[in-house]
Amino acid sequence: MKNIRNFSVIAHIDHGKSTLSDRMIQLCGGVTDREFKDQLLDNMDIERERGITIKSQTICLPFTAADGQEYALNLVDTPGHVDFSYEVSRALAACEGALLLIDAAQGVEAQTLANLYLAMENDLEIIPVINKIDLPAAEPDKVAEEIEEDLGLDGEVIRKCSAKTGVGVQEILETIVTHLPPPEGDPDKPLEALIFDASYDPYRGTVISVRIINGTLKPGEQILFMHNKTEYRVEEVGQFYLTRTPQKSLSAGQVGYIIAGVKNVADTKPGDTITHKDAPCPAPLPGFQEVQQVVFSSIYPISTDEYEDLATALEKLKLNDAALTFQKDTSAALGFGFRCGFLGLLHLEVVQERLEREFDIPLILTVPSVRYQITLQDDTELTVENPSHFPDPGAIARIEEPFIKATILIPERYMGVVMTLCMERRGENTNYHYPMPGRIEFTCELPLAEVIYDFYDKLKSVTQGYGSFDYELIDYRPSDLVKLDILVNSEKVDALSQLTHRDRSRERGLKACESLKEEIPRQMFKIAIQAAIGGNIVARTNVAALRKDVTAKCYGGDISRKRKLLEKQKAGKKRMKTVGNVEIPQSAFLSVLKSEQ
Amino acid sequence: MSDFGLYLHIPFCLKKCPYCSFYSLEGRMDLVERYVQAINTQLRFCAEAYRNHLRPMTSIFFGGGTPTLLPAAALSRLLSKCLERFSCADEAEISIEVNPATVDRSDLAVLRQAGFNRLSIGVQSLQDAELRQLGRPHTVADAVDTVRWARTAGFENINLDLMYGLSGQGIQTWKTTLEHALELQPTHLSIYELTIEAGTPFARMEEQGTLFLPDEDTVLLMLEETQQLLMQAGLQRYEISNYAQPGYQCRHNINYWQNGEYLGLGAGAVAFFNKTRFTAIANAEQFCARLEKGQEVWMEKEKLDREAAFRETVIMGLRMTAGVSLAALTDHFDLNAESYYSDTLHRLIRQGMVRIVQGRLQLTAQGFLLANTVMAELV
Ligand SMILES: Nc1nc2c(ncn2[C@@H]2O[C@H](COP(=O)(O)OP(=O)(O)O)[C@@H](O)[C@H]2O)c(=O)[nH]1
Ligand code: SF4
Ligand SMILES: [Mg+2]
Hints:
The complex is a heterodimer of chains A (597) and B (379). Chain A is α+β, with helices and mostly antiparallel strands. In chain A, 26% of the residues lie in helices and 34% in strands. Chain B is an alpha/beta fold and 379 residues long. Chain B has 15 helices and 17 strands. At the A-B interface, α12 of A face α8, α9, α11 and α15 of B.
């Protein structure tokens, strides 16, 4: 056990986490050059493009240190977004230490801090690493000062490197060995294995990522998932090298995987404890939470005959994404689709992109909603997260909406703008303190509905990227909710309806009208766009009629090309939804969800 | 028997105009001799190979590029080669494009003598500042001279190409240009709205915001003025961008819009017969090389199925004010346009975009402004 180190790399986006991970993998001989594909750990296309890690990935690096001994360095990569902060905390709980990576030219930034906090909550030993020292604009000494003074970390441990050129990376690996503690735990105690991730393998079913805290696990043994209260027989255990490598056993201190005939990823819960059925540990490991869907939106295929394909695609996605939920939904404007639940807006976007990219199904999403609790006059209670199920306002006695406690970390100078933003979003009970000089940790209770909309984008923009944000659900509170409808040439587009607080409805209506105006192409006639509550128009705008759309020249040599262009235009129309006689492109539906930036 | 055209493409230009996306070569005069040779080979080959598909030519059109970069004598020889190889209908229309400042009095006489009976002059503008902006290597005076010389050379049927919607152009300057053009008494005018084509220097300027085109209202007004002025002058609009005195519509181009048959010679040229559209390689050097080696020059052959060909014929026909004859469509494709398009057509009629007049489907005035939108429904 003393030759194991479990660690994670945490960083503000773009400070070089993926590059450094790749470099370490390469140095440890984990990959041949042929196999080396930049940013190995982010293996979904979307992750690579957006530079966000969505699912955790783990890799075991065999390393011969200067002391001549062989070490197993387990690198646990973590998702990097607040939607997944619970998943991050579980992944960090599997580690003893973390590299806190900081860009030598950018210095400490918001996510550096947020991630540092998460690591500290999990009692991780931190090695600050200053990256990109090869850059002309690098100021490693200044950054080192920030690390010591502002973050209060030990200056002695700071390492400097260039993940790009590889300078200093060997030394980082040495420091992991010398500075991070080996895992503790007793291989002879009852089994306690922490689930921190799971992925789906079409041949083997669910592959569960675990950290063994205590005990030893072997194939053939009967195991119990303590929260799920389900039992399985272990088929295989092993470690993640470049590929899964089966082992005879996994024991205390190790990070590895279990295959145990678990059909669906959804049957495992991150944070759950696995123990032996016959000799269980006394209590599950601390920190478990049920994954909660907080954002709901309906997904429709643009072309109604792709409904079956969409159903299949969602089933497939669900195999690997336990946090996604879905059930049938219908819309007058859009036909058949699915009402889906997500961890947050990023999760929603990721699912949408994967459906379009991996399954090639063009989609329309409806305005995301939270889940409301409604009590009717006759005392029946219901939960509503779909505007089309919103009861007749006359029948409603009380509505409650979910509230969160937001924790926002910012440089002091942004206090004013952040306070304003929170107040605009119906924030309550604000509070703050100074965790370090010049930094404010600001807390505020906010309706979740105000946060899922575009809060994070707004926060980033008012704080020029320096604001970091985390939240937890706290309770339900009374709310004055209305249903806002959108009418296009007097026809209601049900898929564009949204539930919103009365005080915010006019603004939302205006914004929706403006976004639609931007996205709906000019057509042969004028198009009126209105936002209404009940029969009351609260906002309106127009798309002027198209006045000129004609190709000046078309002779013998142009006919074919011209026809193909028109055919393309025609195909483009097919991708639009016709409501009344107005053609509404997919982008228009999406624009209503997006913040103005 | 319906028309059959012959198009001959000469892809050379003095200088590439910054708005032009045609296939043409700047400053490759070294290729000319080889190219003419290649065309002769192609002529011989086509006359032989397509013997069964060809009919007497009702129109011949030498276009470019700038055909008149070739010596008038060479053009005359090319035409006589064409006339040797292919039979020609009586009173065939034989056009050639000329750019001002590339021909003189005697060249024009030679061309007329050789049998060309229609000139299409690339005037583009009658304002020197605009010509400079358009990167045209000639002046207003050159254009006026060319028209005068053409008349003396015996050309009666003369078209002028003009452009509107130019950077900095106002209604008044456009009107002045038009009036000036009418004073030259052309039998035909091709009037194009400047279109910014992808990949051209103008497209880059537009992207960088350094091209200041008139707004939509102004451009629409220019079009309206154009129609009025030309109507008074006795030139009727017969296609989106083409106006002519009675009896002077361009037969060659009408054949395109009627989706008629034609042979195309030269690099990048297109031919259409036997329900097939052939496109020649758009590279003069390779075009020559292929012919020298006795290889095919067609890079693409397109044969549409009956319905697609029908729809193509409809949209092309709609470019003309006369529209398309429903009976002719039925004859040709055995499809009834009214039932074929049913709801879409009725909606377009209701929306005032198209109409059916005396058995012909036509765009309305409103439909002409939104022709692409309408055609995208019918294609
Ligand atoms: N010059 C330089 N660029 C680097 C270095 N490390 C990473 N980068 C670049 O910084 C960008 C972000 O790196 P990435 O590893 O994707 O960051 P992540 O978002 O933290 O995973 C990429 O363009 C990298 O090529 C370094 O040491 N030097
Ligand atoms: S002369 Fe005609 S073909 Fe040649 S570049 Fe100019 S516009 Fe294009
Ligand atoms: Mg990354």
